[in-house]
Amino acid sequence: MRKFYAIAGAATLAMATAACSGGAESADEPEAAAETEEVVEEAVAEEAPAEEAMEEAADETAEATDAAAGPATATTDGIAFASLTGDAAAGKRVFAQCMSCHGVEEGVNKTGPSLAGIVGRTAGSVEGYNYSPANANSGVTWTEENMYVYLEDPRGYIPNTKMIFPGLKNAQDRADVIAFLKDPT
Q1: Is residue 175 within 8 Å of 162, Cβ to Cβ?
Q2: Cα separation of 47 and 146, whole Å?
Q3: pTM value?
């Protein structure tokens, strides 16, 4: 693309110089302008297929990455889960706001499903809980990283989920809740 801009710039400069040459015309100026236009057209024709191929390859790579990762794999705050150390005691305090809908006792579903043993479990798989089709069919496995992204924006991660909680915007709070859910004792 830089090559195109350089050639286009040179062509523009040549045409401007020819136009501003003080009114004296020579027989070569129309030919020079035609040659310059030809060079620009050839450069555009050569570069377009290469640029399109690069864009297609980038799109295919992004699609493959998205398909392999499931829903979103990055948080909006840009803080990676791996950069944090969760504190289960702090997570228990943060989890207090989740307790009206979720419990950590095996088989005890409330408005939301039991979160006992959630790390490593497939979404939509708790016996006796009526999941939304979006959650039940998401194919998500609740790894720590997936939970971390989900907890920031549940409806952004799994659109049309029944969970109405807006999410935990603080990265450390999310890491702490995950540490608590791994060992809620």
Answers
A1: no
A2: 40
A3: 0.61
DSSP 56-73: HHHHHHHHHHHHHH-S--
- The CA-atom distances, in angstroms, between 12 and each of 4, 18, 23, 28, 98 are 12, 10, 18, 17, 65
- Residue 122 DSSP one-character state: B
Tokens at residue 152, please?
A: 């920031």
Joined together, the tokens standing for residue 126 give 């708790």
Query: 146-162, pLDDT tens digit by residue?
Result: 999 999 999 999 999 99
Question: Of 17-26, 76-85, 117-126, 167-176, which range is least confident?
Answer: 17-26
Q: How far apart are CA 167 and CA 117, in angstroms?
A: 20
**16, 33, 77, 128 from 122: Cα distances, Å:** 66, 67, 26, 15
What are residue 141's DSSP bridge partners? 122
